[in-house]
Amino acid sequence: MRIVLLGTPGSGKGTQASLLRERLGLAHISTGELLRDAVRRQTELGLQAKAYMDAGELVPDALVLGLLEARLGESDVGNGFILDGYPRNAAQAEALDQLLARIGQPIDRAVALTVNEGEVVERLTRRAVEEGRSDDSEDVIRNRMRVYAEQTAPVAAHFEATGHLREVDGMGSVDEVSQRLLDALDDG
Ligand code: AP5
Asked: pLDDT by residue (tens digit) across 130-170?
């Protein structure tokens, strides 16, 4: 199964993708994680991406697409995958369709996790204290939410038009959300 997870920063995409990886044996592909890894390793791409990430802006499409294409070529992807954090704008949605058509692995389901803004701010502020992620400061969280509303939220319409979209309530415990997500994936 090939799944796209959509949702605001802090909606639980990473948490739920990692549970799906364990339960369904799918590869978890997080463009945010791929980028943070490139920043940690100080690769050329990481050096270019860092300023965008620290500001809560999208990293240029061409850089992210290259990373994604390389990741999709890895051996664990054969059983299917969960895309977490991609696509994030209309151009990325187009590029994804083209790339997956070329490798013969089209998307089966897109799931949008919905969480209210107060909960998002609470979760990310807690993570800032616990993990110290550099883009979890108050002003950058606000910018990530703005970028999401302006550029990423419209991507849901792309998957709605193709009939792949399901909405899942992302409020409540991790286990509750996980069960709803599995139900939505079962719902043919
Ligand atoms: P990315 O890493 O994708 O960050 P994000 O979308 O802002 O997502 P988060 O990791 O903040 O949230 P999440 O929805 O995954 O929630 P999580 O499970 O972690 O991107 C970071 C940056 O990289 C972007 O700003 C951009 O610069 C760049 N980038 C990435 N992809 C890109 C792309 N395609 N194009 C261009 N640029 C790109 O949960 C959040 C917290 O809440 C955690 O602490 C978790 O433990 C907790 N939590 C989760 N679920 C629950 C629950 N049910 N109850 C209570 N707490 C919960």
From this structure: 999 989 999 999 999 999 999 999 999 999 999 999 999 99
SS (H, E, C) 16-52: HHHHHHHHHCCEEEEHHHHHHHHHHCCCHHHHHHHHH
Q: Measured between alpha carbons, how far is 29 from 180 in angstroms, rounded to an integer?
A: 21
- Could you confirm whether 109 is annotated as catalytic? no
Q: How far is the CA of 171 from the centre of ligand 1 (A)?
A: 15
Instruction: Tell the residue number behind the tokens 């803004």, with chain if given.
Output: 117
pTM: 0.97
Residue of 63, 117, 123, 158 to mutate, ligand 1, most atoms within 8 A of C-beta: 123
Selected catalytic residue, list 88, 109, 123, 180:
88
Question: Is-cis flag, bond preceding 154, omega within 30?
Answer: no
Query: Which residues, 6+ apart, have CB-to-CB distance to 155 below 8 Å?
Result: 6, 87, 88, 89, 90, 92, 93
How far, in Å, is the centroid of ligand 1 from the Cα of 30? 9
* 50 labelled catalytic: no
The confidence score (pLDDT) of residue 188 equals 64
In the chain, which residues have pLDDT < 70?
A: 188
